[in-house]
Amino acid sequence: MEVLEKDIKTASGDPVYSYEYIEALRMSDKKRANHLKIIPQKGSQERFVGSNADLTFIGGNRGGGKTYAMLLEAIKDINNRYFNSLIFRKEKKDFDNLEKESYHLYNQYGKYNKSQSDMTWNFYRGGSLAFSHFSDTVADFKERFRGKQYAYIAIDEIPQMEYAKFRFLMTCNRNVRGIRNRMVGTCNPDPDSWVRKFIDWWIGEDGLPIDERDGVVRYCFMDGDTPDSIYWGDTPEEVYNQCQNIIDKHWKPEFEELGFDKVTMYIKSVTFIRGKLEENIKLIGSDPNYVSSLVQQDEEQRSRDLDGNWNFKNTGDDLIKMSDMDRFYNAPAQIARGIKYVSADIAFEGGDFCVMWLWIDLHIKDVFVMRENSANTETMFMAKLNEWGVREENVIYDYWGVGQAISGHVKRAVKFTGTQKPEKQFENSYKNIKSQCAEMLAHYIQDGKISIEPRLLDLKFSGKKGKYQKVALKDILMKERKCIRHKDNSNIGGFELINKEGMIKAVGYSPDFFESLIYRMYFEINKKKIFKPKGMLRYVSYKPF
User: Fold this and answer.
1) What b/e sequence results for 230-252 when a residue is b if at least 16 CB atoms lie within 10 Å of its CB, and e otherwise?
2) DSSP E strands, 98-240
3) Three-class DSSP category at 191
4) How far apart are CA 404 and CA 120, in angstroms?
5) Are 223 and 251 in contact (CB under 8 A)?
6) What letter would DSSP give residue 88?
7) Between vectors from CA 218 to CA 215 and to CA 219, what angle results, nearest 5°?
8) C-alpha span between 483 and 400 (Å, rounded)
9) How far is CA 100 from CA 67, 143, 459, in A?
10) What domains can be seen in the chain, in order of their start residue?
11) Taking a C-beta distance cutoff of 8 angstroms, is the pair 396, 384 a contact?
12) CB 365 within 8 A of CB 359
């Protein structure tokens, strides 16, 4: 068996072992364990330590070997005298098991200070790895680590850490010694955490990681205070095109002289790797009862801990999934009688768009967007209605606030007020008419009852206050779909749509495009005779004309 790969060495000049040799070491370790042999287990651990992404997340089942992989990552630079690293858990008391695991890996490389005020591995070559907690306030946390620098930062159980602390730690992930900077986070499924939103691309509609996307690297630029306002793309160029104005403001010619370019300098690479319990042969071999313990939990906990499901919860899910939007984008034109409608979200100032949708029956034929703070909104609104040839009674607009200004121009149009109560037979099913319209829109999209002109999907728009730049309409709608979800603390038995503040939190900005789609459903509710379906009175069917 060939031990070394021919003519292949690491950046530091060390020889590279062949994969066959590594497999042989693993097999021998099964027969006689040797703690001096440090080899990641085949599967997620191996992919994790092989990641070159700036930010690497590993999550899934409990017992998938995630924490060990996090410790293992530090060994890459453990002999570098300038290597400073940091591993977090929520509380100091949470480090008992982590400390024990670290002795198996680091004892041959250095000495550990057990003091609660220190908790640091001091390596013989000069580097260090410290254990620290993040249970303090955001302000105190920032004060503790302001000005510090670490080439490697790991957060164990990262869903327990506030997003603001995670963002701040990125400023500490630096060094001047040429060591590759990286951050990693281990996580068990938590559908309510910011991590769930952060890794959304890697997670399927069923809540399970998508096999084909496992370990795939994507790119992002983080803006705003929540993961909802992150710009994502498959390439750095794709991300840059979305937030060019933000990046360009901070670009300096001196950076180019140093060999950097603005497309890649400000953009982070990210990957998510699924940890699997069945790959952790060390754990299963030593404690087979662990699997049995996971199975014998309640359904919710079992779904997360054993199945690795990131979606399992009772409320607050997005009603419209990505696959629903794909169905919507590809649906045949839903034109039956040829009646034109307009649904609009009116805005004059304050940063919101004025969005007008032209419908022919349930087919979106055109869209018109007025730039924010337009002084001619009323004039442009009426001009567009005349151009499209839409009857006033087939126009609906948000009457709340600035929408009142156009009421005198379209007297027969529907003045939509979301707080209006639904018809009496639906009072126990919906909080208000907007909730009813929103859920109906979700079901119409799911059922392929709404279509859109294909040419519109590639139209590009720039968001308010730099939230996005030149983004295709299909991508805007894909993001804004998140505004249709059930209010978690609703005290009614039916459906209550989250309020505007909740929408902004879910999407990252005011979802003007999607809100104006919701209004169109008012005509579907009121133009046809409603009959009561069997079962719970929620989403309803309508008798054809």
Assistant:
1) bbbbeebeebbbbbbebbeeeee
2) 110-113, 120-123, 128-133, 152-155, 182-187, 217-221, 231-233
3) coil
4) 64
5) no
6) E
7) 150
8) 18
9) 12, 29, 56
10) 1-37 (no CATH), 47-216+270-305 (3.40.50.300), 322-526 (3.30.420.240)
11) no
12) yes
Q: Which two tokens stand for residue 87?
A: 């591993």
> Tokens 């939007």 map to which residue?
325
Q: Which among 235, 86, 72, 247 has a CA at the least distance from the CA of 152?
A: 86
Q: In whole angstroms, what is the distance from residue 366 CA to residue 49 CA? A: 49
Nearest to 210 by CA among 280, 159, 273, 158: 273
In terms of C-beta density within 10 A (0-12 exposed, 13-18 middle, 19 or more buried), how is residue 190 classed?
middle
pLDDT of residue 426: 84
How far is it, in rounded angstroms, from Cα 222 to Cα 236? 13
- Kindly state the tokens that stand for 259: 């060999």
Number of Cβ within a 10 Å radius of residue 157: 21
- What is the three-class DSSP state of 93? helix
| Best CA proximity match to 397, nearest among 510, 516, 523 | 516
> What's at 134, amino acid-wise?
F
Q: Is there a contact between 234 and 265 (Cβ–Cβ < 8 Å)?
A: no
What one-letter code names the amino acid at 282? K
> What are 339-362's pLDDT values in tens digits?
999 999 876 444 457 899 999 999
Query: Which runs of consecutive H residues, i.e. helices, occur in 96-190?
Result: 96-106, 138-145, 163-172
Between CA 526 and CA 545 the distance in angstroms is 13
Paired tokens of 46: 């191996």
**Which amino acid is residue 301, in one-letter code?**
Q
- Looking up tokens 């890697």, which residue turns up? 202
Mean pLDDT by 10-residue block, N- to C-terminus, for the chain (545 residues)? 60 71 68 66 85 92 72 93 95 86 92 88 96 88 95 94 94 91 92 89 88 95 90 96 93 87 92 75 51 51 63 66 85 94 74 84 94 67 91 87 61 86 84 93 95 93 74 88 80 79 82 94 75 38 32
Q: Tell me: the pLDDT tens digits for 86-112?
A: 999 988 888 888 998 899 899 999 999
Report which of 476, 464, 470 is spatially closest to residue 517, judged by C-alpha positions.
Answer: 476
Q: In this structure, what token pair is assigned to residue 100? A: 């024990």
Query: What spatial distance separates the first Cα and last Cα of the chain, rounded to whole Å?
Result: 78
| Residues contacting 75, CB < 8 A, separation 6+ | 38, 105, 109
Provide the pLDDT for residue 427. 81
